[in-house]
Amino acid sequence: MTKTFRVLSLLGAAALISMAASANTSLAVTNAAAIDGNFGLEVIFDGTTTNAFVEDQTPADESTYNVEFKLRANNLTILAANDATSRHEVFAGRFPANLIRMEIHCRLAPGGPGTGNCGPGNDGQWRAKAYARNDNNTWKFCGQTGFVPTGNTTYQIEWVQGSGGADGSIRFLKNGVEVRLCNNVDNDDRGINAARMGATGRVDATTSGTSHMDSFVSTR
Ligand SMILES: [Ca+2]
Ligand SMILES: [Ca+2]
Description:
Layout: H1 10-17, E1 26-30, E2 40-46, E3 52-56, E4 64-72, E5 77-78, E6 87-94, E7 98-106, E8 126-133, E9 139-146, E10 153-160, E11 168-174, E12 177-185, E13 194-201, E14 207-219
Bound molecules: calcium ion (2 copies).
């Protein structure tokens, strides 16, 4: 892998954040959110369902796109009232609609170590999941992995655009270990033109607290 660009410095992130509206899901660059170095990105959930993210517009119709970032749940709480409303997206690769998305999910899992609610004092059934969009706008699910809420976890996604048919792929990794490699993605129509990190979609009203993100690196 050749690192051809490294993006989303937190100086740039701060400039974007300063334009965001308040009284919604919001972002801050803080010392407390640092996972590497002195600053990190804090994602603040206040019960509204708006998105809040920093966006990197450096990618230019990329046919391969690799991303990694670190995430910790900090004091994030997700109430798993049902499986469909107990998640939010933390990353999106776009053209301009999402072609890649990663979400964290609190799964309603009767009989599991948690009863569904994920947060401080109740680890519930945290999951991290990755998806790639096909040209026909269906989503290819590419694996889930347990999400350790109190630790710092590095996630990576490697996306490859196909040349026709269903010969694209997406690979999902946690802490350098492959969660799943998914072939047969039909994604030749669109390359990656932008990336978002933060609370990039499907934010639920029952989500509260803050999560921390840091160390975003993308390569082609
Ligand atoms: Ca940092
Ligand atoms: Ca196609």
